[in-house]
Design a protein that fits this description.
Layout: H1 22-31, E1 37-41, E2 44-45, E3 51-63, E4 69-80, H2 92-103, E5 113-119, E6 126-130, E7 134-136, E8 139-146, H3 152-167, E9 168-171, E10 174-177
Parallel strand pairs: 1-8, 4-5
Antiparallel strand pairs: 1-2, 3-4, 5-6, 6-8, 7-8, 9-10
Helix pairs in contact: 1-2
Length: 179
């Protein structure tokens, strides 16, 4: 069951580096419950009649291309991007209530990786990761970006290179590393 506490909104992660968790999204919804929750993707906002058609949770075990075992939890929220009657965008409180209702029946890890599956019912469903929700005017906006494939061993190597270069700086005429 999902912890229903209302934590503070965490610092903003970058889409390319970190995934927002369902817990962080719920915290943002709890902080602005009356605001319409609007997802943006592919350069436009989701239609006012959008539906959450499915929420599913999974625990995954895998072996990456470098032979390293991987394990993670992931929650998928499926959004159907449609116009329906004179509906408006659902409020952040309604979105949070739907997710919490799901958590009564499906174990949701508040820190799980969050993936959105989005389709208009015609185009194939696309996978998206979410940026930190932001209040823009009188709307709570969540920007979605296509979820790219990656090579985890390469990603770890690049991160190590970035950390190594960040801790090394020229001192006088010599370069000294802090490690």
């Amino acid at each position: 069951m999902l912890d229903l506490a209302k934590p503070e909104i965490p610092p903003s992660p970058q889409i390319a580096d970190d995934d927002i968790s369902i817990g962080a999204l719920l915290a943002a919804c709890d902080a602005a419950p009356a605001l319409p929750l609007v997802f943006t993707y592919s350069g436009h906002s989701i239609q006012a009649g959008y539906h959450i058609t499915e929420v599913k949770a999974g625990a995954f075990s895998a072996l990456d291309c470098g032979g390293n075992p991987e394990a993670w939890s992931e929650i998928f929220v499926q959004l159907w991007d449609i116009v329906e009657d004179d509906r408006t965008h659902m409020t952040a409180a309604k979105f949070a209530a739907i997710i919490r209702k799901v958590s009564d029946h499906v174990a949701l890890d508040a820190n799980a990786r969050l993936t959105f599956e989005v389709s208009d019912g015609v185009a194939p469903m696309q996978l998206h990761c979410a940026d930190t929700p932001r209040i823009q005017g009188d709307v709570l906006t969540v920007t979605l970006a296509p979820r790219p494939a990656s090579c985890k061993p390469r990603d770890r190597w690049l991160e190590a290179q970035k950390e190594a270069s960040a801790c090394c700086a020229p001192v006088s005429s010599k370069s000294t590393c802090c490690r």
